[in-house]
Amino acid sequence: MTLLSNTWFAERLGDHGIHSKYLEDHHPAHMPCLEIRRLDWAHAAGEAKRLGMRLVAVWAAEAGKHDVDAEGRRALYSYMAFAHPEHRHALLRTELNGEQPQIHSISAHFIAACRMERTMQDMFGIDVTDIPDNRRWIKHEQWPETAYGLRHTFDGNTPLSPDPQRADVDYDFLASESESVYEIPVGPVHAGIIEPGHFRFLAVGEQILNMEERLGFVHKGIERAMKGRNAIEGIRLAARVSGDSTVGHAWAFAQACEYAADIEIPPRARHLRGVLCERERIANHIGDIGAICNDAAFAFMHSQCARLREEMARLNLAIFGHRLLMDTLKPGGVRADVNDAQIQQLVAQTQSIADEVEHLRAIYADTPSIQQRVIGAGRVSVQEAGDLGLLGYAGRASGHYPDERIEEGYPPYDTLDVPVPEGKLGDVATRVWVRFEEIAAASRMVVAWLQQLPGGEIATPWTAPEAGVSGFAAIESWRGEIAAWVRFGMEEKIDRYFVRDPSVINWLGLELAVRTVPVPDFPLVNKSFNCSYSGNDL
Amino acid sequence: MIRILHQVFQTGTITEPLAASDRFERLGNRLQEEIRRRFQGSLAVRLVDAGSCNGCELEIHAANNPYYDIERFGIHFTASPRFADLLLVTGPVSINMQTALEMTYDAMPAPKLVLAMGDCAANCGLFGCDNYAIAGSVADIIPVDGVIHGCPPSPTDLIQGILALLA
Fold it and tell me: CB of A322 within 8 A of CB of A316?
């Protein structure tokens, strides 16, 4: 599906005196990468904001080994990506001064950029000027100052030694000078069976005044570890960026690779990817609805939802070979085919689970004890959601509806209508409502695709592109848009993989949502967002 | 309320024998005996995710679902390491989690058991031990008594792994 080159953003920038150059070695053409001057960087972000675009990501990349200049130096680039509901994605790139890399912050236009800019400072030593928050983010306090994990000059293969000089340095949390405000530090090891992260609450009595997140605890060098793997090996790593979104991340990685290599996957593979991704959506929404109810002591829903989720995991294992659907995709297509009997099983289970969920939904809606807890809890306003650019169900509950299945309309979503639940109230109840609606819609899509599954191959043979070619993809995972950018280097190997999990943005929504809730409601609100720590920390 | 009860009775008991093999039945019985004898009938487990992708956590949750119902063997997950008999660790140990893992281990009363769950905990898995952000496998950081392989290990593997450690 090669579309015409998308010049919309380049023309709009040109209207405001920002000259841009289309980069030929970036694909696909409908999501172009434009080179601009460094001094236009923040101005271009401001224009994107005025044009009604949302920020997708900000990141950096060094030139690959294939691209070293005569003196052995590698250029350092900064990238940012924006998306417009009609005019889709556009990437901007600018070259930094390799000796003293510096770039202007765009956080004044898009506050969600701030943590990504802090990551650029941590990982590349880029000085982001005018950044509103200059603290470290992924790189914790004990790391040596010059440990820039993604620079080629840094030894990425030896476990880092903490800097003894920095042993007593603490993260500078927002504090209150008032005597009646107390702090509650939570984590990184939490009470339940969940991932690690630190939350610092400022509270008065029962009421939360402010909650600040300190993440990065599960940073395991995924971007660096991808370097030097080929696409076939790499997809297994991408599938573990966040275990609960394994299909979404594998798909985003695979599609970025396929765009770069200009490979089209067979229609049967597209449909099967859709089935896998929507099954992942259904399973996670069911699990989360149960867990949200459990955090408000409605254990009945938790048991029932856990039962349905387990039934899906078992059929996943029987048909696709993995309970969580890990490693079911590969560059060029999918790994496992389905026969007629399996199609019948999948259709029957999808329909029966959708019916059961509707039945449970009626019980949930009729139970005052749970309704009283979820209605009005943890609100994010439409204005706040738009300012942050919240994604997935967190956005859809607060009047912000980006959905790549519609906007980007990649196959197989171009074959049917994807209904978008349009919530506005932005509380826990609305986020749960969005999830119930999405389970119903996803079930209909899965059944429709399975009933009209095209015949033929399930994969196109994979051939890597030349060194220096990059691809960008945006896939709507169950949590929201996953953006992946992959650049190939020499010998068919990947030399830079950047991925932005929707959690990177949605974690900010949680901070806003809990400003109005009592401390005991925090777990409930947190679960309604259920952001990934691993996907954020990489 | 009547609808909830109706749904509960209609669903019935779905908790099942672990697997249709004699070996498993034997291990299950021995596990309950061991827990009764050595832990007064209850084994408290503290989980630490030291850097996992959260796949292992999903399967630990599943082990608590009504199908497996791990609590029926006397195993329960505790919030505090102070009450824990067993430390279950997932993920390669990230540099940023190393101190928290060591502190959790030190906070547990002796004697204590440590079980490394998943390929990452066993050998850093796909992320690799040759990685600046990873301090090592769990055994590189704290003493480990048992390992469960898998990516992620299934709830059945988890239950089997705990049985194998105690029996």
Answer: yes
Break chain A into its structural domains and give their ranges: 8-138, 222-537
Q: What pLDDT sits at residue A421?
A: 93
Of B57, B95, B152, nearest to A160 by CB-CB distance is: B95
CATH architecture of A8-138: 2-Layer Sandwich (3.30)
State pLDDT tens for residues A451-496. Answer: 999 999 999 999 999 999 999 999 999 999 999 999 999 999 999 9
Pick the closest to residue A276 from A337, A202, A367 (CA basis).
A337
Q: Does A167 contact B at CB distance below 8 Å?
A: no
Which positions 113-152 of A are in contact with B (Cβ < 8 Å)? 140, 143, 147, 149
Instruction: Determine contact: A192 vs chain B, CB below 8 A.
Output: yes
Helix extents (H) in A133-226 = 222-226
- Looking at residue B23, what is its pLDDT? 55
SS3 helix, strand, coil % of chain B, rounded to 5? 45, 15, 35
Residue B160: both structure tokens together:
């089997």
CA distances from B139 to A221, B98, B127 (A): 20, 12, 16
> Which domains does chain B show, CATH number per domain?
20-166 (3.40.50.12280)
Contact A220 B131 (CB under 8 A): yes
Give contacts of A192 with chain B, Cβ < 8 Å: 77, 79
What's the pLDDT tens digit per position in B89-101? 999 999 999 999 9
> Is A222-537 a domain of CATH 1.10.645.10?
yes
